[in-house]
Amino acid sequence: MASPSVGIKGSPIVGVRRPIILGIVGDSAAGKTTLSRGIAQILGVENVAVLCTDDYHRYNRKQRKELNITPLNPECNYLDIMAQHLRLLRAGEAILKPHYDHKLGDFGPPQYIVPHPFLIVEGLLGMFWQEMRNAYSVRVYLDPPEELRWRWKIRRDTAKRGYTEEGVLRELAIREHDSAKYIRPQRDNADVVVSFFPGAWSNAELDGDAHLDVRLTLHGTLHHPDLSEVIAEDQSGCVRSTLGRVGGRAVEYLEIDGSIPDEPARALERCILDHLDACGAAPLADLGQFSDSQTRDSRHSHPLALTQLLLVYHLLRARQLDQIEV
């Protein structure tokens, strides 16, 4: 994949007192890293720091097995230190954070994190406490169907973390209770819920994840860009916007088919980019890129690109509002 272009005019950004923080929460292998990596490329990697909340595990893999506890359980994590570090970073102060090596299942040397203009915080329990949620400008929950997430986790953990398929399936079964009790309820605290799922035209054997559909649940806690005109002009039928309610709250559902042709996808991209221009964005490149889990090749997904653009819009808008308040 070609090197991404800088996504913000005048990068690197200077003079920002405190970072704009994006919180991305989801279960293991829900796609957090793929989403955050693309957002960092758009914003310019020199402008973004990434913090993984899984680094705050209390026990290593061997200890968790001995104690019969999963990393999804809050008691298995130093949530108090995590919340403290988020508070310090939000205030523009550096931290020395722990580091967990997923391949080894053990801890490595601590890492020094200096606040950048943007901070992406991704992991399992990043929105578990209100104090954590208060640190974020934008809160996202990744919610793929379990069948798809399990497929992603099997591929990742067998290829990168030394597990067998049987071992991954066994671990998924063990974690299910904690997933339902601790991870999924965090969805209710998100501004945007992102759900990639196989649509009518998806064929995992032929094209992997390139044609996954996406459903974005947009809560009124953020001011979302108006895409109604470009959606109304779409002749492909691959973009839909409907209203609904979740937990008594009004939401907008934005659905984009993975089979969307290039032209209507570019029309949507241009519409969001028009909003981004008002927030100070420069031309962007390498949107919607992901690594194919079968071939290891870089591939493109229009729904992923549009999701990344929407979230970047919210981060840039938050930066504008933050600078006005300061």
How would the blueprint of this fold be written?
Blueprint lengths: L19 E6 L6 H12 L4 E5 L8 H7 L11 H12 L4 E7 L4 E8 L4 E6 L6 H4 L4 E5 L3 H15 L4 H19 L8 E6 L6 H4 L5 E7 L8 H6 L5 E8 L2 E8 L5 H18 L9 E3 L6 E3 L1 H24 L1
Parallel strand pairs: 1-5, 1-6, 2-5, 6-7
Antiparallel strand pairs: 3-4, 7-8, 8-10, 9-10, 11-12
Helix pairs in contact: 1-10, 5-6, 9-10
Q: What is the CATH top level name?
A: Alpha Beta
Instruction: Please estimate the helix content.
Output: 25-40%
Annotation, overall tally of beta strands: 12
- Please tell me the CATH architecture by its name: 3-Layer(aba) Sandwich
Largest sheet: 8 strands, mixed
End-to-end C-alpha gap: 38 Å
Poorly predicted ranges (pLDDT <50, ≥5 residues)? Answer: 1-16
The number of helices is 10
Q: Could you tell me the mean pLDDT?
A: 87
Query: What is the N-to-C succession of helices and strands?
Result: EHEHHEEEHEHHEHEHEEHEEH
Question: Per CATH, what is the topology?
Answer: Rossmann fold
Q: C-alpha Rg, in Å?
A: 19 Å
Tell me the strand order in the biggest sheet: 2-5-1-6-7-8-10-9
Structural class: alpha/beta
Corresponding CATH superfamily:
P-loop containing nucleotide triphosphate hydrolases
Query: What is the overall silhouette?
Result: globular
What portion of residues belong to β-strands? Answer: 15-25%
Task: Give your account of this protein's structure.
This protein is α/β, with parallel strands linked by helices. It has a single domain (20-325), classed as Rossmann fold, CATH 3.40.50.300. Helices cover 37% and strands 22% of the residues. The chain has ten helices and twelve strands. The strands form three sheets. The protein has an eight-stranded mixed sheet with strand order 2-5-1-6-7-8-10-9, with helices on one face. A two-stranded antiparallel ribbon has the order 3-4. Strands 11-12 form a two-stranded antiparallel sheet. A hairpin with a 6-residue loop joins β11 and β12 (298-300). The protein is globular. The two termini are 38 Å apart. The model is unreliable at 1-16 (pLDDT under 50).
